[in-house]
Amino acid sequence: MAEKAKIQPRQNRLSRTTLVEFVAQSWSYLFLLAMVIFFSVTGTGFFTVNNFANIFVTSTLVALMAIGQTYVVITAGIDLSIGWTVGLASVIAARTMRDLVNGGMEIAPAMLLGTVAALLVALIPGIINGILIGRVKIPPFIATLGMFGIVRGAAFLLTDGQQVVGQLPDNLREVLRAIGSGSLVYLIPGQGVAWFARPEGLEPAVIRGVAPLLPYPVIITAVIVVIFAFILGRTKFGRHTYVVGGNQDAAVRAGINVKNHLVWVYVLSAFTAGIAGVLYLFRFTSGAPQAGEAALLQSVAAVVIGGTNLFGGEGKISGAVIGALIIGVLQTGLVILNVDAVWQFIVVGVVIIVAVLVNQAQAALERLKTNA
Amino acid sequence: MHEPILRVRGVSKFFGGLTALDNVDFEVVPGEVVALLGDNGAGKSTLIKCISGVYRPEQGDIYFQQQQIAGRSPSEVRNLGIETIYQDLALAENLDVGANVFLGKEKIKYLFGFLPVTDDEYMRREAVTVLDKLDIHIPSLKQKLVNLSGGQRQAVAIARAMYWNAQLVIMDEPTAALGVPEQRKVLALIKSLREQNIPVILISHTMQDVMAVADRIVIMRRGRVAADMPRSEATEEIIVRHIVGSAEVGE
Ligand SMILES: Nc1ncnc2c1ncn2[C@@H]1O[C@H](COP(=O)(O)OP(=O)(O)OP(=O)(O)O)[C@@H](O)[C@H]1O
Ligand SMILES: [Mg+2]
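A: This is the predicted complex of the input protein with adenosine-5'-triphosphate.
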């Protein structure tokens, strides 16, 4: 029967994984590694536990924002508002905790309530973004740019125009610092480890060598990374995120509720920004409207460096985390090398452009391989 | 004569000032292949999108198995058993074959008994089964569709529609990107659906295909049904006259 003819595949000649391909696929990991080696060799004090802990802690802010941003960018969107959402969350958390403690509440419940309040308030810009983008069909760039201004204004209103929330009670700051600057495990050179808090009563010489092994902000961020990487990579919600970004019409026709999905994605983006804001308060014991201002574009950079396609449909949380670490290593490394801070901007800018070029080359390579 | 399984009554659809569908009546009975013909822009795709839930018609009713479906969502319509192969295929080209066959209906399994995750292995296996049944071969099943040829992608869209045991299959130019042997396969597929008493709405510009498989021919012109005739009464000449509109002029 003539109908028996097969729809023939093209032959796959280049099926072996070549070195080029390996480099193209994992270049961001290799680049991170290369930079670590470079700075370790050239910068004194770079290759220390203390410095690595510092890099990880510093990177949590960008990493957390980049997690939500990854979801958004996979749907072919962008969220410009999260920088100020970080600030808003830190301000809400700081004010709530301060007022509750000053009102006589115990520290722990006050901190819990402040955290919950900050996260809930942080969701509001996300919900509005999602509705504007998913239902009213306003382009993401415009909707979140508007929200950028609104949230910025709201955050400054809550500090009466000041750069920080007014003085927090000392006992509250102490507990915040214990978490934000603390570590689950400390390495004591030559004496093993200490748990939960920086060990006391040591010789001054030993104290200088004590290094945090698992800082709390890093643990918290790692938990968030694992949860959101799981949701994106393994669940139906994650799959639908890729479908919406790959072909929105196809998503609608396949029966996916695209409008609601987009709302959830922007809520999620605001949520990770909210976490970042609360963490900022813990780390710096102050709430500041501009807490995430500089980190916004870095979060977009991290997402792009991590291989997420700005046109949507492709991307991974692990990539965004690597991207955030690359930026963290660059910044710390350049400081240690005594390079003027302005060079950071230039270097990060170059890395972003190289990232996009490499990712494009990789896509071309993949196509070549299939169609060869 | 069978009761119609699908009944479109007085459906109109407007895009701004443009009347894409103008009071359309249209029926399909079980086991028949209805060819929907018409010029570019006649309203064929718009009509089937009203049926499949992509568009909500401004006027009129659509009944499928006696249930009103006009204005229902695409997922509701799919769940009632209508599968559609769209002219633009409606595939997520950034994903693999398994994900596309199960688009919007992902198979879930429980990790550690409680964490719901997509069962990608299962979906890939099932995709292979349906592709094999259709005699379609895709080189690598983990391949994103963007790396497949146009014909292979069309095959995936067809496979998806076939997988879900539809009660009614709608095909909007399903053979446009296919080679001659593959076109024949699709025609054989349509015939086998008819043998299983599953009706098909086939939109095609290929007159030969239409003449080969259709039981009835409906011709649209400027958003209206211009003619509706059994295959036995149709000749290419009559069809063409209705498509270009000279039949009405002559009357
Ligand atoms: N989403 C839309 N928005 C505005 N106008 C539309 C839309 N979809 C279709 N139209 C218009 O409606 C009319 C009917 O289009 P339709 O796609 O149904 O034609 P068709 O018969 O499928 O044509 P073809 O054979 O080229 O596929 C055309 O004039 C088209 O421009
Ligand atoms: Mg059409």
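Chain A is about 70% helix and 5% strand. Confidence is low (pLDDT under 50) at residues 1-15 of chain A.
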